[in-house]
Structure prediction request, 257 residues.
Amino acid sequence: MLKDFSESQILELASYTGKMILQNGGEVYRTEDVIGRVGKHFGYEVDAFVTLTCIVVSIKGADGKYYSQVTRIKGRDLNLNKIHKFNNAIRHIDEYTYEEFFQKLKYIEKNFYLEFYRFVFGCTVIGATFPVMFNTWVNEIIIGGIGGFIVGIFLSFLNKYKVNSVITNILGGMICSSIACFATYMGYTEHTSVIIISDLMIFVPGIAFVNTIRDLTSGDLIAGTSRFTEVIMVAASLAVGTGIVLKTFMSLGGVVY
Prediction:
């Protein structure tokens, strides 16, 4: 395609595209790839350097000079539906003009959020199904499901107000262990640890951990190390929240099974 647009316009579009991919849970290599594809489509040579918190895009202009733009990533989520929509739009970029493609990306970003009831239902299913793996009774399945339901509502509330992830995970660990300890105290279960583990699985960053291994093995050490640190922080936060409640419960005479 002819270079019908200025360097600043292509920088803006490429950076925005990469930002949308990264903010919604896309991998670093995928973000760099789509930025390059957007630039190539409009006839420009584009290079990108991406970390989990920053995107740097450089473009070689028609005059031979290089132009660059830095985009700060302040928060990230996980929305695979949006990732799919963005990737599909990028694969069919030939069907859009510059303005149409930009508007398409903005439309996807403003829509396709995970509905509240689906999110809560998913958390409930996670909490209810993991006890089955430990060969427990129906009581644990029901309690785990109730815990997952409560955690789902709790997470939806905190995500709405964009609460810090560390605080979210600490509070999440406290809620999961509180539910399990209460059920144990009331005599509904003797498998406190199973209930805690089942509901904590909602918070476990499985995709981030897999991406960590992939980045490290492919030589992308910065992204891999960043994600590994993120995974460790999540695990530590959950452990702190869970430990606070368990310690309090046991100090009051409770017994953890």
